[in-house]
Amino acid sequence: MTEDAWIGLGANLGDRRGTIESAIDALRVLSRTRLTARSRLYRSPAWQASGPDYLNAVARLQTGLAPADLLHALQNIETRFGRLRPYPGAPRTLDLDLLLMHDRVLHTPALTLPHPRLHERAFVLRPLAELAPDLPIPGRGTVAACLQTVDDQDCTVWSRP
Q1: pLDDT of residue 83
Q2: Which listed residue (38, 60, 92, 126) is catalytic?
């Protein structure tokens, strides 16, 4: 049995675009998983932290992995791309967030679904709305409805300088 999983991708250090494209390639080859869609790249300032602007995207997967196994696979990809966690909000070479898995609601020490701040972040909601504006976020409404509440946040489609 497979289900949809939505992954947020972000980077604000190094070759941001190249890293996100390579991370998407890594998602393509995950076990028991198929990449079915991906958004364009979006630029946003660092969220509640200092540092360079982020590039962000969202990918949709069809996966047979359990949520904890998918999270572990995402963390392994981050590590391969040099992700360090020196302090909360630190700049990063790659951030992969498991945003949603179908309509699952899950609270464990390692994973909360839906992602607990998904509905507050334009840099996640804008690329997600590009792919699935009517997607329900359990307990929050649709992606499009949540996006209206963060319309004042700076997040734009990225175009190469």
Answers
A1: 80
A2: 92
What is the separation of C-alpha 142 from the centre of its chain, rounded to a whole number of angstroms? 17
Q: Which pLDDT score is estimated for 72?
A: 97
**Spatial separation of the C-alpha atoms in residues 36 and 5, rounded to whole Å:** 10
Among 1, 8, 2, which Cα is nearest to 100's? Answer: 8
Residue 104 is among the residues annotated as catalytic for this protein: no
Active-site position among 16, 60, 83, 121:
83
Active-site position among 16, 38, 60, 97: 97
SS3 12: coil
Q: Does the annotation count 32 as an active-site position?
A: no
Q: Where are the alpha helices (DSSP H) in the chain?
A: 16-28, 67-80, 122-131, 143-148
Query: Does the reported pTM lie above 0.90?
Result: yes
Distance, CA of 7 to CA of 128 (rounded, Å)? 9
For the chain, list residues with pLDDT below 70.
86-89, 161
Query: 70-95 pLDDT, tens per residue?
Result: 999 999 999 999 887 756 667 789 99
**Which is the catalytic residue, given 16, 95, 121, 126?**
95
**What pLDDT sits at residue 86?**
59
Assess whether 53 carries a catalytic annotation: no
Residue 130's alpha-carbon distances to 13, 26, 123, in angstroms, are 25, 22, 12
